[in-house]
Write a structure and sequence with these properties.
By secondary structure, this protein is mainly beta. Helices cover 11% and strands 33% of the residues. A 5-stranded antiparallel beta sheet has the order 3-4-27-26-25, with no helix packed on it.
Length: 410
């Protein structure tokens, strides 16, 4: 993104905003503008203390609405300033032109000020709710059964939007960037995609579940290659679920109905496999999510065995933890699994409607979440991923939304 282009976009947005505010329009903020879809991601905030909170739309913190606040919002929209959770004046979950319009309406007295509180989201288990986005539907930013999620090195979030047969890409604050896919078996089409993984270069791998294949795309959704077909031979797949990329670029695929993990090169050449149906060490029962740590160790979540298994990158069993239940360290159908830069493991405990966090050897650290639709609550969540800055994104499946949390100091 060139500075000139940003400045031009900023000027256009400013003129548009002023015009809309003068005519008393209220921006819906539902549709991403061209500026939003092309802006480059901003560096995620390294928040380590709980947000103190403030007033929505008051970007300079002086307790009043001003034109300066609106300009600050527009600078965020076009990528000149990092995002601020107090920017979402119209409360639609993203920073957009509508927020600047909302503030300007307050400046000229068309709307009442203040617009509400920002920041200071509920804290549970050492994690603070930051934001949520999405609702049920098929429009941009809407979901139908969102499953597993992934994040790239820049902090962008990818969602396997299963029943919409597509992948959606968002900024770290939930601004819609792009989408790709439709129902079908052609290149770039999907049949109930369930898993998504991203490599260090930003390429996106999708577990195309009922097409029994993996598809690889660029970070903006351009088809690169595909591999797999229905079966149980090497390189064949049966209902692939989770997909994860190791530190060397190899791709691990949860071969759900074959009860095994398959490992491929980044272009789909079969390397190795392990697992069989069962409950012993190295066996799987309804394996679902997979994650790889910085050392190349592989973590697999199994819904029906209610456990996490840890392997070397070539499938040698290391350890396991978990059993059926709702106590700390127990699971009721774990699905998504993720690992952070320090090697901590995060598990979506689907029917307990919570996230549990463990050390890399399975020692329970913390948990958060309960069943419901309020912020910080979940309804049959499936996906979890940790961004480079430690933010945790959860695919809150039955609530048709993504929720973002951040670790906070006590
Ligand atoms: Ca202000
Ligand atoms: Ca907004």
């Amino acid at each position: 993104m060139h500075l000139l282009r940003r400045c031009q976009a900023l000027t256009v947005l400013l003129v548009m905003t002023m015009a809309l505010s003068l005519f008393g329009c209220s921006g819906s903020g539902e549709n991403a503008t061209e500026a939003e879809t092309t802006l480059s991601p901003v560096a995620p905030a390294q928040a380590v203390t709980p947000a103190q909170g403030g007033l929505l739309g008051d970007l300079d913190g002086d307790g009043a609405a001003s034109v300066g606040d609106a300009i600050r919002i527009l600078r965020i929209v076009v990528g000149l300033d990092p995002d601020d959770e107090c920017a979402d004046a119209n409360k639609n979950g993203t920073t957009d032109v509508g927020d600047a319009i909302k503030v300007l309406r307050c400046v000229v007295g068309l709307d009442d000020w203040p617009l509400g509180e920002c920041g200071g989201g509920p804290i549970e288990g050492g994690y603070q709710f930051v934001t949520a986005w999405g609702s049920e539907g098929s429009g941009d930013g809407q979901f139908d059964n969102p499953m597993l999620v992934a994040v790239d090195a820049a902090g962008n979030v990818y969602v396997a939007d299963q029943r919409n047969h597509r992948v959606q890409k968002f900024t770290s604050t939930g601004i819609f960037i792009t989408k790709w896919g439709s129902k079908g078996a052609g290149d770039g089409q999907f049949s109930y995609p369930s898993g998504v993984g991203v490599d260090a270069a930003g390429n996106v791998y999708v577990g195309d579940r009922l097409n029994n294949r993996v598809q690889k795309f660029t970070s903006d959704g351009t088809f690169i290659t595909k591999w797999g077909s229905a079966g149980s031979g090497d390189g064949e797949l049966s209902g692939p679920r989770g997909v994860a990329v190791g530190p060397g670029g190899d791709v691990y695929v949860v071969d759900h109905y074959n009860s095994r993990i398959q490992k491929f090169t980044s272009t789909g050449t079969f390397i190795t496999k392990w697992g069989s149906y069962g409950s012993g060490d190295g066996q799987f029962w309804n394996c679902f999510g997979v994650a790889v740590d910085a050392d190349g160790n592989v973590y697999v979540a199994e819904e029906a065995n209610h456990r996490i298994q840890k392997f070397t990158g070539n499938g040698t069993f290391i350890t396991k933890w978990g059993s059926s239940g709702s106590d700390d360290g127990q699971f009721n159908c774990p699905a998504g699994v993720a690992v952070d830069a320090d090697g901590n493991v995060y598990v979506v405990d689907v029917q307990n409607c919570r996230i549990q966090k463990f050390s890399g050897t399975g020692t329970f650290i913390t948990k958060w979440g309960s069943q419901g639709s309020s912020v910080g609550q979940f309804s049959w969540p499936y996906g979890v991923v940790v961004a480079p800055d430690g933010s945790v994104y959860v695919g809150d499946t039955t609530n048709s939304r993504i929720q973002k949390f951040r670790p906070v100091a006590p």
